[in-house]
Amino acid sequence: MKWQENGVRGVWIKISLKDAEIVPIAAQNGFEFHHAHKDYVMMIRWLPTDEPNMIPGYAAHYVGVAGFVVNDQNEVLVIQEKYTHSMQAHWKLPGGLAEPGEDLADTARREVLEETGVDAEFLSLLCFRHQHNFSFGCSDMYFVCHMKPKNVDITICEQEVSKCQWMPISEFFSHPDVSEQHRFFLSCYQDGDAHSWNTSIAPKRVISYWKNSHDLVYSISRRRPTCSSFSF
């Protein structure tokens, strides 16, 4: 085989939906599925027989983002989903999956606005959860963002949300229809609040490894004090 003679180790074939009849032919020639999208399938073949397959697997994680939005009355914005896997609806934070190429803060703002009608400003990452064996066997990273509302009037997304309200922090912590994970998210918020939010985890634009673009790097930094931070 010329590929092997020329030192080729891994071969990739991208087959569009309109050419799907090629798939069984590729399979008969030793190609395997690597991943698929709605308009194509990617197939691969590792040629060396004396070394392990070094072709990296496809993306293994989902990225979800939620907004922990707190108003001036110390109330948190919460929703109940219209469709849920559980028999009983739970109060939870508004949020959803990040779009390809979408930054975490932008996802949080978009999802909160879409589901509740509240436009909120990103302040800091609050915490994140790493879960395995999520949908289709993938892992899931769920980022919770501390946010400040620009408006408080609620307009729910009737396609996704059955209920939405501003719930007092104390009620949220003790409510029987709030999960233990969401109580933990609240404890993270209270821990930051107890220290007057003198630090935050926020993005900074840093030049990429290839030096042809910038990446967002999230890091802990000290917030600049405001007048409200001092006692007189």
Structure description:
With 232 residues, the chain is of the alpha+beta class. Helices cover 19% and strands 38% of the residues. The chain contains five helices and eleven strands; from the N terminus they run αβαβββββαβββααββ. It has helices at 2-5, 23-28, 104-116, 169-174, 180-194; strands at 10-16, 32-37, 40-46, 61-69, 75-81, 95-97, 120-131, 139-149, 161-168, 199-207, 214-222. Strand 7 (120-131) and strand 8 form a beta hairpin. The longest helix has 15 residues, at 180-194. It is elongated, with a radius of gyration of 23 Å. Mean pLDDT is 91; it is low at 225-232.
Describe the structure concisely.
The chain is built from 5 helices and 11 strands; from the N terminus they run H-E-H-E-E-E-E-E-H-E-E-E-H-H-E-E. With 232 residues, it is of the alpha+beta class. It has 2 domains: 2-46, Aminopeptidase (3-Layer(aba) Sandwich); 61-204, Alpha-Beta Complex (Nucleoside Triphosphate Pyrophosphohydrolase).
Low-confidence stretches: 225-232
Number of helices: 5
Characterize the largest beta sheet: strand count, sense, and whether it forms a barrel.
Answer: 4 strands, mixed
> Would you tell me which CATH topology of the largest domain applies?
Nucleoside Triphosphate Pyrophosphohydrolase
Under the CATH scheme, which class of the largest domain?
Answer: Alpha Beta
Cα-based radius of gyration, to the nearest Å: 23 Å
Global geometry:
elongated
Q: Secondary-structure element sequence?
A: HEHEEEEEHEEEHHEE
Percent helix: 10-25%
Structural class: alpha+beta
What's the pLDDT, averaged over the residues?
Answer: 91
Query: In which order are the strands of the major sheet placed?
Result: 6-4-8-7
Return the domain count.
Answer: 2
Number of strands: 11
Which percent range describes the beta-strand content?
Answer: 35-45%
The fourth-level CATH homologous superfamily of the largest domain is Nucleoside Triphosphate Pyrophosphohydrolase
Second-tier CATH architecture of the largest domain: Alpha-Beta Complex
State the distance separating the first and last CA atoms: 81 Å
Pfam families: NUDIX, Nudix_hydro
Keywords: Hydrolase
GO molecular function, one term: hydrolase activity
Protein name: Nudix hydrolase 8-like isoform X3
